[in-house]
Amino acid sequence: MTVLLDIQDHDTRIDQLRHRRASLPERAALTEHESALVGIETERRKLEERLAELRRSQKRLEDDVATIEAKVAAENLRMYSGTVTSPRELQAMQEEIDALGRRRGDLEDEVLQLMELAEPVEAELAALAARTDSHVTAAEELRAAIAAAEAVLDGQLDEVLQERAPLAADLPEGLLATYEKLRGRLGGVAVARLEGGQCLGCHLSLPATEVEAVRRAGPDEVVIHEECGRILVR
Ligand SMILES: [Zn+2]
Predict the structure, then answer these.
(1) What would the pLDDT profile of 63-93 be if each residue is shown by its tens digit?
(2) Of the candidates 131, 124, 123, 122, which has an alpha carbon nearest to the alpha carbon of residue 36?
(3) Are residues 232 and 195 in contact, defined by beta-carbon separation less than 8 angstroms?
(4) Mean per-residue pLDDT for 37-65?
(5) Residue 1: what pLDDT?
(6) 114 CA to centre of ligand 1 in angstroms
(7) Which residue, among 234, 222, 155, has the nearest Cα to 194 in the 3D structure?
(8) Cα 201 to ligand 1 centre (Å)
(9) What spacing in Å lies between the alpha carbon of 189 and ligand 1's midpoint?
(10) CA 41 to ligand 1 centroid distance, Å
(11) How far are the Cα atoms of 14, 138, 191 from residue 25, in angstroms, in the given order?
């Protein structure tokens, strides 16, 4: 039965290595960086939308300014072409040109306002880009650290598994199946040593009569500790 205890030791070690592999602290840190990046992306999209909206408005205003400029140019050309001679008509044209100039000035002020509104949005986007970079770098470093730690643990796991294989091969199939079933039910520990009348699996002391029964059992006989359900090994 001591071989069963040996298998149990190996399996405990395997469980510990797998647990360490699954719960590497770098994984939690990586998750934090990844969720930070998701948050940044949401923020970035909102800001990009806002900026695109401002740019569209700016473009519309600039198109209006261009239209007005074309009108003023055409009016000027007509005014100085000499074809219009009536002072009243010339006066009206000048007034029209002045009005267009005022309108153009208003539109240009609006363009400037939009550019001012865009500035902080652009600054925020730049800040987000810097934050993205730092999270991406940190995540890359963590992924490399995780891969390195996994490689070490996988090497150790392989070693323990290779040691375990011949031990398990020696065991009767039925006993191995019982052992595996018990392990599943008892939190991974199916075999316990009996020492000084105490089950080291559950740390309960056995009555003297039971200790005696265990002692008398044949070497291949499986004795179960009734209290905790583990296979007792002397
Ligand atoms: Zn026990």
Answers:
(1) 999 999 999 999 999 998 989 889 999 999 9
(2) 131
(3) no
(4) 98
(5) 67
(6) 77
(7) 234
(8) 5
(9) 10
(10) 54
(11) 19, 14, 31
pLDDT value at residue 205: 95
β-pair type (223-224, 198-199): unpaired
Cβ proximity of 166 and 61 under 8 Å: no
**The pair of three-digit structure tokens given for residue 161, joined into one six-digit string:** 């598994």
State the distance from the centre of ligand 1 to the C-alpha of 205, rounded, in angstroms. 8
How long a stretch of residues is the chain? 234
CA–CA separation, 181 vs 97, rounded Å?
A: 95
DSSP string, 144-196: HHHHHHHHHHHHHHHHHHHHHHHHHHHS-HHHHHHHHHHHHHTTT--EEEEET
pLDDT value at residue 10: 96
Q: 198 by DSSP, 3-state: which?
A: strand
Distance 130 CA to ligand 1 centre (A): 58
What is the mean predicted confidence (pLDDT) over 31-44?
98
Q: What is the mean pLDDT of residues 203-207?
A: 94
